Amino acid sequence: MNNLDVLHARAKALGLHGLLAHWHDATAAGWLHDLIEWEEQERARRSLERRLKEAHIGRFKPLCDFDWAWPKKCDKPAIEALMSLEFLNDATNAILVGPNGIGKSTLAQNIAHQAVIHGHTALFTTAGQLLGDLAALDSDSALRRRLRHYVNPTLLVIDEVGYLSYSNRHADLLFELISRRYEHKSTLVTTNRPFAEWREVFPTADRLSHAAPASKTLLIRAAERGSNLGSITGALLRLLDRYGAAEMQAAIIEALDRNVPHPSAVRLALERRRHERQQLPPVAANLSDHVQARDVAVRPPRLELYDQLKGTSDE
User: Fold this and answer.
1) What is the CATH number of the domain that holds 96?
2) Is the pLDDT of residue 55 over 90?
3) From residue 296, how far is each of 28, 78, 209, 230, 282 by CA, in Å?
4) Stated pTM of the model
5) Structural domain for 293, as ranges
6) Is position 249 within any domain?
7) Are 68 and 176 in the same domain?
C-alpha cells in the first residue's frame, strides 16, 4: 500500500466525503497530507476534551506527587498494574480498601484520568451521588435510561462506598448496575470498610442471609463456578419476597443437594413444593411508578377464608 492509499484510507475513516469526491484534484494540490493530519489532531483533541468533561474526575493530585510513605501498607505494584489499564481489557473489577484520608480517591482519580488519556471512556462518582440519582427516578423507563448512563463507560469509579448505609432499594439498584457491567465493563470501588462490615452497608444481602442462611452456601458455590453474584442475589431476593423465608430456605437446600447453585433450581424447587401442597401461586402487585418501595409482596387470602366468612354471614 503506497502513501496515497494510506491517506485515502485515513480520509475515509474520518468521513471526509467531499475530499474523497475530489481526490485526484486534492492529491495534485500538495496539501493533502497536512489536511488529514490537522483533521485527525483536531478530532483527537475534541474527543479528549469531551471524555474528560463527561468523566467528572475533578481536581486531583497527580500520581507523581503521591506520598507513598503515608499509607504504610499500600501495595504500590498493584496500583501501578491498575495504571497500566490492562484490567480494562479483561473487564476486571478492582476495590481499593483502606481507612479515611490515605488517598484512595486520589488513586482512583489518577486511574480514571489515565483511562481517558488512553482513549477510554470513564465516569467518576460517589456512591451517594450514584444511588441517590437512580433512586430519585419515578418511572421504570427513566431508570433504564439512567442505568445506561452508568453502564456505558469503559471504567466506572464508585467512590466512598461504606460512608453511608443504604436501604434495600439502594442496594438493589447497586446490584443491578454491577450485574449489568459484570464481565463487560470494569468497575473500580473505593471503600473505608473491610469486607466483614459490608453487611452493615448493604442490608439487602444481610436480609437474604438472615431469612435463608443456606443462601450463603449457594452464593459461595456459585462464585466458585464464576457465576454473576449480583444477578443471582437479585433473583434470590425476588423469590424470597414472593415465597417467604421458610419456603426459600427449604428450596435452597434442595437446590444445593442437587448441586445446582442457581436461582432457576431454587425456583423449580419452590414451584414443586407449591404444587405438592396444592397451594395457589403468590400474586405480585404492580405498584404505581411513584411508589419507591417496590419490593412489597402481596399474597391472596386462602379460599377457605371466604367459606368461613360466608358461613358466619349465614348465621
Assistant:
1) 3.40.50.300
2) yes
3) 73, 43, 18, 20, 12
4) 0.66
5) 218-229+239-315
6) yes
7) yes
Q: Work out the average pLDDT over 283-293.
A: 53
Q: Which three cell numbers stand for residue 229?
A: 453474584
CB neighbour list of residue 33: distance below 8 Å, 6 or more residues apart: 7
For residue 234, being part of any structural domain is answered with: no
For residue 76, give every residue at least 6 positions away whose Cβ sits within 8 Å of its Cβ, in sequence order, or none. 68
One domain, residues 156 and 85: yes
pLDDT on residue 304: 63
Partnered with residue 109 across adjacent β-strands are: none
